[in-house]
Write a structure and sequence with these properties.
two-stranded antiparallel ribbon; 17 helices; 10% strand; alpha+beta
Length: 534
């Protein structure tokens, strides 16, 4: 069946004018005819917003309006932006924070709905601090005694697993083999973070696989939150097309992460706890740890960042090691029944504390309707239209971007599939699936191959493997979030620094950086303008 052109109807629905500017539509007379210049529509006809102001990342897609989901989107937006409260009073709308948590709201990690900002201290109460700690042993294995995203906040009478006041972030200077200088004399700076945590900051023992490890084996790194706009469109890419991309890169001799792709097939993601174990291709997070947006980082984070329970997760984001430590703590035992009188089940505070912390049948704090609204919002966030696409510098930058090989990993475009809602969690099935916006058969321009590669950076990301970050809309980050920091830990403060961090001798992008270094300044500036405009 021939795809129907939705453009005229979308424009009519949104009241968009392509010949004038307004507060809500910053498309100017110099912008291209979107029918001719398809890259202008970064998110396709159903996923693009024409707002390029400071609220560009917060807009709903045309698909949301076409599906009659604007009210649901707005309710979900309110959940994303509002802090949760530690009370368990059913009359409180945003209740249920704790007993341990990482942040009290989603927006605390995603300022302006975008990437978190570089920090000099680990204060989780600072809006814009999107840093999550990564605690491993010397073999990059996560500590089993701490949650995958370690918690630093606690409600009384409990104590935080880790005292964040003692976390130290130090920014160090890195000098590359070229002396941080281009051949024409222009210089750049490279910095990276090192994190140290004294042993007395840890409330819970350091364990891997349930066995104690020595403090000297501890490794600490940072990962920052990524932008969340456009994730519904990435979810709409078909698994068949993702497989074709892996096969193409395998055929070209690209080394692929054997933990994700081995012997010509996927190591699939599956949820056997809430779901039925159906396999899904991995597509989300730096580590490709999630296989579908409906059970992806946002669906998971609204639970584990805040520890707010819902019907399919009636238990705490918690480790048995923490529950054991807290249950034996005399201070916690003394005050536990004061805060949780309903959990005086056995009269033995140690047993009651452990049973509460590890219970699988806790009261539901987030309703099903609230979760549906949140995911309608999450899947409904639009991508800002590309900017300057008729500018000669943009065209020159794109040409060089392609010629240098950058477009190999940062694949420019995809066409989405049928976009059948897939949920490893088995929540969005049946009629619930109809409550989410969809993006079938849209040509989108995310600039990612959705595959992991290695940059071999100093103090690198855990395992060294990192999914190619989508570049769409990132040029608006400073306007939308107040910061333009890039890469997984915000080590790059601008595009030049991000590019040069790709330049390690062992980096998968080494040849592209060598080509970039050969450019004159005007061409380097054109590449930067292109990247900032897509």
């Amino acid at each position: 069946m021939k795809k129907k052109n939705l453009l005229p109807f979308v424009i009519a629905c949104l009241g968009v004018s392509f010949t004038a500017c307004s507060d809500n539509d910053n498309t100017s007379k110099t912008d291209p005819d979107p029918v001719v210049n398809e890259e202008f529509y970064a998110g396709g006809e159903l996923g693009t917003t024409f707002n390029n102001t400071s609220s560009a990342y917060e807009q709903f897609t045309p698909a949301v309006e076409l599906a009659g989901l604007v009210a649901s989107f707005k309710r979900g937006e309110r959940i994303f932006e509002s802090p949760y409260d530690i009370t368990d009073d059913p009359a409180t709308p945003m209740r249920g924070l704790g007993p341990l948590w990482i942040r009290s709201s989603c927006i605390a990690c995603h300022p302006g709905y975008g990437h978190g900002a570089r920090q000099v201290s680990h204060n989780s109460n600072v809006i814009g601090n999107g840093y999550l700690l990564v605690l491993t042993d010397e073999n990059d294995t996560y500590l089993s005694s701490y949650t995958g995203m370690p918690q630093t906040q606690a409600a009384p009478p409990f104590k935080a697993p880790l005292d964040e006041r003692k976390i130290n972030i130090t920014w160090l200077t890195y000098v590359d083999e070229w002396g941080n200088r281009f051949d024409d004399g222009e210089t750049y700076q490279l910095t990276y973070p090192e994190v140290t945590i004294p042993q007395d900051a840890f409330y819970v023992p350091l364990q891997v696989g349930g066995k104690d490890i020595d403090y000297s084996q501890l490794r600490v790194r940072l990962e920052n939150t990524i932008g969340i706009y456009g994730t519904g469109l990435l979810d709409a890419i078909s698994e068949e097309d993702l497989r074709a991309q892996y096969l193409a890169e395998q055929k070209a001799g690209v080394v692929l992460n054997p933990g994700v792709w081995k012997d010509g097939d996927f190591n699939y993601y599956a949820n056997t706890l809430q779901g039925d174990g159906t396999p899904y291709v991995r597509r989300f997070t730096y580590a490709l740890s999630r296989g579908s947006l409906q059970d992806g980082p946002g669906a998971n984070a609204i639970w584990n960042i805040t520890n707010v329970t819902r019907n399919d997760r009636r238990y705490h984001y918690m480790t048995a090691a923490y529950a054991t430590t807290a249950s034996k703590d005399a201070d916690v035992q003394r005050d536990f029944y004061k805060y949780y009188p309903q959990w005086n089940k056995t009269g033995d505070p140690e047993q009651d504390i452990y049973n509460y912390l590890m219970s699988k049948e806790l009261p539901v704090e987030m309703t099903d309707d609230e979760y549906i609204d949140l995911m309608a919002w999450h899947r409904g966030l639009a991508v800002p239209a590309a900017r300057n696409v008729n500018d000669e510098d943009f065209k020159r930058g794109k040409q060089l971007f392609t010629e240098m090989g950058c477009a190999y990993c940062h694949r420019p475009s995809w066409t989405t599939g049928n976009d059948v809602i897939r949920d490893p969690n088995n929540f969005f099935v049946g009629s619930r699936a109809d409550k989410l916006p969809r993006y079938p058969h849209q040509k989108i321009w995310p600039y990612t191959d959705m595959i992991q590669h290695r940059l071999m950076m100093k103090n690198d990301i855990r395992t060294g493997w990192c999914r190619t970050t989508p570049l769409w809309g990132r040029g608006l980050s400073t306007k939308c979030t107040g910061a333009g920091d890039r890469l997984h830990d915000c080590r790059a403060r601008d595009v030049i620094e991000a590019i040069m961090w790709h330049g390690s001798p062992q980096s998968d992008a080494r040849k592209s950086v060598e080509q970039f270094r050969k450019l004159n300044k005007s061409d380097r500036d054109a590449v930067v303008k292109f990247i900032e405009s897509i």
